[in-house]
Amino acid sequence: MRDRDAIAITVGIVLGAGIFRTPSLVAGGVSDGVALMLVWAAGALIAFIGALCYAELASAHPDAGGDYHFLRRAFGERLAFLYAWARLAVIQTGSVAVLAFVFGDYLSQLLPLGSASSALYAALAVVAITAVNWIGVRQGARAQNWLTLIEVSGLILVIAAGLLFAPEAAPAAPASAQESLLGLVMVFVLLTYGGWNEAAYVSAELRGGTRSIPRVLFLSLLALAVLYLLANLAYLRALGLPGMAGSQAVAADVMRAAFGPSGGALIAVAVAVAALTSANATVITGARSAYALGRDVPALGALGRWHGPSGSPRNALVTQGIIALLLIIAGGFARDGFRLAVDYTLPVFWFFFLLVGVSLFVLRRREPDAPRPFRVPLYPLTPLLFCAVNAYLLWSSLAYTGWGALVGVLVVAVGGVLLLYLRTRSPAPEVSR
Predict the structure, then answer these.
(1) Which domains are delineated in the chain?
(2) DSSP H or E segment with residue 390
(3) What is its main location (predicted)?
């Protein structure tokens, strides 16, 4: 694979629908525009540091299991099982709900259905995607690439609209002193940068070998940082910081300010399509993780049944869809369903992300002579910083978020109890991601 191909793939993985939704949450936690731009720049730096750590793990311990394989190799089968459970019950299903709410928020800009419009559209999206995959219909790679192009083009259009065409927002009154929300802000920023851990595995297949990994990751994240900074600058110029913080669909509001109702409708369609596409990909990968869990743990064998005629793990798809729907129903009663889904997912995500960082130290100590085609620079400072940031974000996602975060943690705790039950009745699980 050529470097430019890997860069394009990496940008496509990371550039999700989040940049069209999370900036409003970030704007609500900073005091001025300068702080807004600084936290997005800091997010890019942190993402690059983490990508370096993943590049070492992926090149030294290549395996299709990804995070599961790193955790199992470093900490054993029980913790790896807990990760597999969390991926089914919290991480993937929460991600599906997050993307479904982005779809609902933007589609509601076109066809509002009342106060619960976003949740209704989100639920319909989950049902539709699950049904399509249950039947066995697959989206081809070409269609996915075209839809990713629509997403990138839409973001560039929003940037141009906000910087060049929309009237500049009136200066906001000076913000009153408030408690620092840096931890909460960084949770949302790094959520938007999420996906570079998958990009590390793609980079390992470069023609230039492991020497190309840092270059590809740096250029990919540099491109994303530029896009994200320009997008936030466009939002800020067109809406102002209070306008950003109060918006449920910042991109649509910018396009509406620049081109009127037709502009808002155009970008709403593009973002809704992008969110639906990302949700579909998440449903596909999540169901296959659940299928692998059921295949390898006899007590969960119902999840591990593959339906040959349709070519899909139907039971796993339905189970995943039900969990996502329950989260969306809860979000329908919350003030912000998107925020609830994020709260539910992120503490668990940061916990296992932290453990992956710790696994780098464990594996270096346990296997000092193992071949490492790529070594993270400035060891141990770089992975220490990565772990420290993840620990801080784990704490922030618990301290600053709502009751949804506690529910996510409780669901993982149920997995721990389930693990004790399963160990007396089945061999240790061996789950591939």
Answers:
(1) 3-423 (1.20.1740.10)
(2) helix 381-399
(3) membrane
